[in-house]
Here is the input.
Amino acid sequence: MSTETFGKTLAKNLGRALFVLVLLAYLIPIFWMYSSSMRSNGEIILDPLGLPTKIDFSNYATAWEVADMGRHFLISFTITAISMVIVVVLSTLAAYAFSRLEFSGRKALYVFFLLGLILPVQSFLVGLFIMFRQMGLLNSLWSVILPVSAIGLPLSILLSKNYFDSLPSSLEESAYLEGAGTFTIYRLIILPLSVPIIATVITFTVIGVWNEFMIPFVMVQNADLRPLTTSLYVFSTKYSANYALKLAALTMIATPMFLIYFAFQSQIQKGITAGAIKT
Here is the structure.
């Protein structure tokens, strides 16, 4: 074996080993969360890294009832669904305009939107709180929906524009010759061709909004309107010593996001790959 071949083989094996280590670093805590959620609190305290001696789902029922998770699930679902619709509609419209339309200040406005990718939530949270207080929006679902939708727009616009740039313009030119307007072309031609990127935007938005903690924690103090993330924080504080209940609640919150990601995984790969290749 030549030195060059040996070097390539070694690099490939080291890359695979590193990939396995990174994968295990993610999978082991998830496996521990699921397995420990089916153990008693005493078992977890005595042997934190042990496996359950029997499969027991009673922790889930207890956590669901004690934390009133049904109410908070519905609140999180409502916030996530409305935010998802807002982000998908606005980001695809804006991305289509940036990709296909010529207007004054287009590049500057696009860069302005992309600045949202680097702004941390903490940089504008105080100003947002004061503005919503003056508008009377605090302690309402809109005080969460509007900010999280705005936060999701920059990445969604970036991904959607890259995808639209990769689509051939010949179909649109034919439609223009037939007398179709810009919005008609967007609705009847572009959107049907954009299922992969729309699925990508939906997935990223749903996961981001569902897991958002800082904004609802600051904007919503009414216990009856808290989404799952902030209600879990209050629940964890109240039951700080009951690890089994906390892990069961955390498992129920995290599982829907895992399922959504795996369900749309192929569409996400298609959307990002297609958007990365310009035709």
